[in-house]
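Would you mind writing out a protein's amino acid sequence and the numbers that encode its backbone to help me picture the idea?
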Amino acid sequence: MTRPLVELGDPRPALLGSSLNELLSRWLPRQRWYASSGRPITEISVVAATALTPECFHLLVQVKEAGQQVETHYQLILGAAVDPPPRLWQHALGQMDGPAGGTLMVYDALHDRRVAVLLLDRLREGGKVGALRFESFRRASLPTGLAPRVLDAEQSNSSIVYGDRLILKLFRRIQQGINPDLEVTARLGRWGHASVPAPEAWFFVTEPFWGTLGMVQPFLTGATDGWELALDSAAVQGDFVKQAWGLGRTTGELHAALAQVFPTAKPEEHHRSRLAEEMMHRLKRSAEAVPALRRHVPAIQSIFADAAATDSEPPLQRIHGDLHLGQVLWADGSWHAVDFEGEPSRPLAERRADRSPIRDVVGMLRSFDYAAHMSPTPSPQWADQCRTAFCSGYSEAGGFEPTEAPELLRAYEADRAVYEVLYEATHRPDWITVPLEAVARLAGTR
C-alpha cells in the first residue's frame, strides 16, 4: 500500500503514483546496487516517505519481481524540481507531471551537494525527521564545512566522503533490524580494535519497520584497497608475500577481537554433517545451472563427505562474512577491514549468525586466486605464495592454524568456488574460468 507523502507534510503529493513508479521501474534495474534477478518488476510501492526539503524526499520503496515471493526494500533519496542545476541532469530518472500542471525533473538527490550537506547536518544534530531517526555516539562531534563527494566505486551501497575526513555509507537494500556493519564496527570500536574504523553516527527508519539506513565513520585518507594492490603486484608477478602475511595476521587479530566482544559457540554434534548437506545442495543446484561443473560433482561430494567426518573445527563466532581483497584497505602502514555487512542479498538473521572463521580465511584465499588470474600473464605460483603467507600470518594471531584442518579448509574452499561458478555464470560469464579452474584443482580433475 502506497503511503502518500502528503501525510508527512509533503507539498508535492503528486510525486507518488503511477508516473513515479514508471520512472523507478526503468531506473532501478540499471543501478549497480539493485539486486536484479533478471525478472521484470511487477510492483513498486512507497512504504515510507519523509520530506527533507521542499524538493527532496527520502523514500523506502518495496519492489516485487515476477516469480519472486519475497519483496525487497530499497532506500532512495530523490529530488524533484522544475529546473534542477545542470550538474544533476546526468543523475535524472526522467520527467513527470507536477502537481501544478508543470513538468518536474526527478533525479537521484544523493548527488546534490546541498542534500549531502543536509544529511551530515541531520546526523550532527540528531533527532527525528518524519519516519527517520538520527543518532550519534556519546562524545562524537561531527565537524562542519566539509565538502561532499559521492564515491563511484561501490556496488551494493552508496557512500559520500566529506572533506576526506568522514564517510557516510548509505545501505541501499534495507531489512528489518540492525545492519551487521553498524553492529560489528560499533562493538569493535568500543573495545578499541584499531584496524576497524569505528562509527560516529547513524540513522534509521521506523516505518513500516525498524531498519538501519546508514552510518558515518572516519575516512582513511590515502588508503588503497587490497584488490588494487594485489592486482598491481600480480601483473608484474611481484613479491606480495609480506603484505599477504600481514593481512593474515590482521584477519587473525580481527577474529580474536570478535570472539571477545561477541559470544562464541562450540559446534553442535551434527554441525559438520548438516554443513556437508548444505554444501552438497548448493553443488547440485549449481551443477544443474552450469553444465561445465557436472564432471567435478563426484569428487567435490567426496571433499564434503571428508569434512563431515573430521573432528577438528574452531568455535563458531561472528565473522566478517564477505572477506576478500576488496574489503580491506592499506593505510598508514597497516591493514584495515571494512564493510561488515555480509552479502546484502542474504537474510539479516543469516548474516548475523555465528559461523566458522574458516569462511573468512577461504574468502581471502579465493581472492588471491582471482587477482592472479586477472594478470596479463596469470601466475598460480604468485597466488600459492600469497595463500601460504596469509595462512602463516593468520596462525600468529588467530585461534587456530588453517592448514591444520585441511579437510575443512578444502571443503569450505570448494563450496566457495562452486558458489563463484554459479555467480560468474549469471553475472560475469567472461570470468567463469577462474572458479572452474579452482574446482578442478580441488577435485583433482584437471
